[in-house]
Design a protein that fits this description.
Blueprint: H1 2-15, E1 28-33, H2 38-49, E2 56-58, E3 66-82, E4 88-103, E5 106-119, E6 132-141, E7 144-159, E8 170-186, E9 189-204, E10 212-227, E11 232-247, E12 252-267
Parallel strand pairs: 1-2, 1-3, 3-12
Antiparallel strand pairs: 3-4, 4-5, 6-7, 7-8, 8-9, 9-10, 10-11, 11-12
Length: about 270
């Protein structure tokens, strides 16, 4: 996709009256201005290796005819569809680039965007049965329940096959959540739904040197509890979680969509 950016550079230089033939002595002295990030370094490397073909003579000083400033560059991976099992089936890789040409007193801003669909599945395939802990408080208005609950789970699961074009394994662990519950008590049963926020620590073996952070973590679901006696109950709930996973070095962004079924056993104080 980056080579399309080079073709835009061809067009601009040609419009300035310079030849694109590599053996023509009339080349444009230029300097690349960019922030030192992995994506920018890779793009600059491609431009440098092709500078003869685009009619450029790259320099390290700013006393040049043309300045090329790379403003921003981003690669993102996003889920866009689900299959019949409610797990992501198709995603897209999106690439965007913003840059500008500075020639004399003229500034020409340019942008480029492209995307590609690919099969993808974030469902965990091993280590899915795990223990966790929760603590909450419920307030009753007759049969109406209002409550708050917090939970912690050391391990969530592992995905050994994230996609046909992706390598490594992804482990999700150290799940922390806080949720607001609303429900209804009917005899020995409590039916409830909830909405919460949280945090999780993902680890991808192929990107160990690229630290991550999670933002926009949302958890929602519904469930049912059954009172065994005055102090003990059992329950089952379906949980759906979405969060954005950002890689700090490569500026890679990924949207993760997870579902889980949780069995619970609790003690009433």
């Amino acid at each position: 996709m980056r080579y399309v950016c080079l073709s835009l550079l061809f067009l601009f230089i040609y419009s300035c009256g310079y030849s694109l033939v590599s053996n023509n002595p009339s080349k444009l002295d230029a300097v690349l201005i960019y922030e030192s990030t992995p994506l920018n370094k890779l793009l600059v490397k491609n431009i440098k290796s092709n500078q003869g073909y685009v009619g450029l003579n790259l320099s390290k000083t700013d006393q040049v005819d043309l300045k090329i400033r790379i403003i921003s560059q981003r690669i993102g991976k996003f889920l866009s569809a689900t299959d019949k099992n409610l797990t992501p089936a198709v995603g897209s890789i999106e690439y965007s680039l913003e840059y500008e040409f500075i020639l004399d007193d003229k500034i020409i801003s340019q942008s480029f965007y492209d995307s590609e669909l690919y099969p993808y599945n974030t469902s965990t395939d091993t280590e899915k049965e795990n223990l966790g802990f929760y603590l909450g408080y419920n307030f009753y208005l007759d049969n109406l329940l209002l409550g708050i609950e917090t939970s912690f789970q050391e391990n969530i699961g592992k995905d050994n096959n994230p996609g046909p074009n992706l390598t490594g394994a992804v482990t999700y662990e150290k799940l922390k959540e806080i949720k607001l519950n609303i429900g209804y008590n009917f005899k020995d049963f409590v039916f409830f739904t909830y909405l919460g926020i949280g945090d999780v620590h993902p680890s991808w073996t192929s990107y160990q040197n690229d630290p991550t952070y999670v933002r926009d973590y949302w958890s929602r679901g519904f469930g049912i509890d059954y009172k065994l006696n005055e102090n003990y109950f059992i329950g089952l709930n379906f949980d759906e979680t979405t969060f954005d996973l950002n890689y700090l070095t490569s500026f890679y962004a990924e949207e993760v969509h997870k579902q889980s079924i949780r069995a619970r056993f609790g003690y009433l104080f």
